[in-house]
Amino acid sequence: MSNKVRLQAVRDVEAYVPPEVSFTDTEAPGQVFGENVFNQVVMQKRLPKSVYKSVIATIEHGAKLDPLVADAVASAMKDWALEKGATHYAHVFYPLTGLTAEKHDSFFEPVGDGTALAEFAGKTLTQGEPDASSFPNGGLRNTFEARGYTGWDVTSPAYVLENPNGNTLCIPTVFVSMTGEALDHKTPLLRSQQAMGAHAERILRLFGHTDPEHVVSYCGPEQEYFLVDRHFFLARPDLLNAGRTLFGSKPPKGQEFDDHYFGAIPERVLGFMMDTERELFKLGIPAKTRHNEVAPGQFEIAPMFEKANLAADHQQLLMTTFKSIAKKHGMECLFHEKPFQGVNGSGKHVNFSLGNSEVGSVFVPGDTPHENAQFLVFCAAVIRAVHTYAGLLRASVASATNDHRLGANEAPPAIISIFLGDQLADVFEQIAKGPATSSKGKGKMVIGVDTLPVLPTDPGDRNRTSPFAFTGNRFEFRAPGSMQTVAGPMTTINTIMADSLDYIATNLEAAVAEGTDFDQAVQTILTEIINEHGAVVFNGDGYADAWPIEAEKRGLANLKTTLDALPELITEPAMELFEKYHVFNHREMHSRYEIGLEQYALTIGVEARLTLELGTTAVLPAAIRHQTELAVNVGALKAAGVEADTTLLEAVSAPLADLRAGLVTLKSALEAEGHDDALAEAEHAREALLPAMASVRQASDTLEDLVADDLWPLPTYQEMLFIL
Ligand code: ADP
Ligand code: MG
């Protein structure tokens, strides 16, 4: 690394000509949508009727998969994939690293006479055995049985992934140990979905839907990301290896100008967006909005919501697609939660609702008091769930990288609260006092003991500071980080909702059995819930200094870092909850806790080593050269009998001394790594490595503003953020 690399990067960016993107008629988004997906239309065409019906029963109604259909599906799937140019197939799974893993195999097997035959049996479709012993398992796999197994997830369609070197048939799968314990993100999501659905259906039955359609959770993730030119990216070993800049002084022109937000999208970025959208459309991913985000170089994409399991798979696929297409356009796509210090970070808002094709979203207020009672019951379930299990929600988004974002004044605070909007908050306030009688604003509702309000469909105000907000027809969980899979938070949401819905259904069913008036019973439980759990409702400014103090008075936890949040996973009530709804057993919970700690320590460990290396080999030499030049200058002046001004020399010498000291401290902190216990190692990362890294960075950032530009080795924030 030298300043030459940096200056060359700037010149290369200037000279770069991005590829042109244009669509022919046959490639128009409407034409290509779902083109590479083995979806229901394709299945209906290609599968025997009985097989098709059986598969649909599993996908749509959650019926158990009939093992006899596997061979027929495999054969049709193989023919379809071969027509699409696939040469290989892969079981795709989602290990606990948060990334996507694939095990590729060839369709073709040699048959002895020198030719090869395309083979793909039902057994191959339904089960795989990847050599995946290096994925984190938190003690769930003993060394003698280190294998993990993949299993076909029928509810997420297979697809063909195009690649210049040959296409691959991708089959979404779960990844479990030999004993059936979850080693991935998909398995618990599917389990939690089942639990939530069953209890939501009990509520619907109480409200007169005698045979409700299968209830699922829907998820619409909003993905924020940065784009930087690849020349700069490659000249920044910290971005390359840690996904974020470990050094970098804030540019003179930052986001305070706000001219980027919803401003014009650079031509080159538009080309990238068109290209990604076409690829996403082919894969059946309904990409929708696009606009610039708050920070320079930052953008957002929000696909249309889908069933949570599918949305989670699509979200992972979206990230991989973005990465590879950005490369094609000479850019790097950054999904890190905080690639640039002092610049707005990236989140992944998880919009979610529950529902089915019959009732739509249960979070839409209806036209009749009866429908509204149902709506309020589901909202009350959310209030109770979020209040009771706030710690679990916080833990579901805990990571070393997301810690940089939560609680900084850009993302919601680490305190989990709910924003209901004025109208709905008002209704619940009245419910707390007993039967509601009026509503704020335009509503004109009259409520007696036996009837509930006619609610306005107005979504209420937007409150960007709330981690959990009602937004008209759904709730939006804003704490998840841009890099995280939505499967984690959705699993938690489903499970805590299962618990609340179970609680309410049990209560109402008992009341009905005792002959209590149903409306009365609903009124009573709503009042009870809002009185017990209303403390979690907060419509104010989550960034205000007064909020943490107020939150503490209300008994709401403020779990600032990952290490404060992770122990929530292994509390007795948490483990009981997940076991009761068959989402995780105790061993699985412990394994997730352990893996969380390991990942935390690993992430920070890598960053610390990079900080030491770059600080020593890039920043320090540049600063010393600069200091030497100044010293030589002072010496020369003195020798010539001219009065020498030493302020510049002194100004650079102080942070240079800090840098040297910081590097020494960091080095010894790194030498003290290697605790046997995962918690001790993670604590060491937080208590020793992070502060040491911060002081190295501070000294370096001060130096960056002092050292001659032609000596500075690393591309600057100004260059990375404003040149696209
Ligand atoms: P905003 O920025 O105002 O929050 P966006 O349009 O950027 O809105 O994103 C909204 C996201 O919410 C989209 O992904 C959308 O599909 C999703 N969404 C809308 N309705 C629902 C719903 N009923 N359930 C789940 N997600 C939804
Ligand atoms: Mg949003």
UniProtKB/TrEMBL annotation:
Residues 87-180 form the GS beta-grasp domain. Belongs to the glutamine synthetase family. Gene3D superfamilies: 1.20.120.1560, Glutamine synthetase/guanido kinase, catalytic domain. Residues 185-619 form the GS catalytic domain. InterPro entries: Gln-synt_C, Gln_synt_N, Gln_synth/guanido_kin_cat_dom, Gln_synth_cat_dom, Gln_synth_gly_rich_site, GS_Type-3, GSIII_N. This is Glutamine synthetase type III. Coiled coil: none annotated. SUPFAM superfamilies: Glutamine synthetase/guanido kinase. PROSITE patterns: GLNA_ATP, GS_BETA_GRASP, GS_CATALYTIC. One of its GO terms (biological process) is glutamine biosynthetic process. GO terms for molecular function: glutamine synthetase activity.
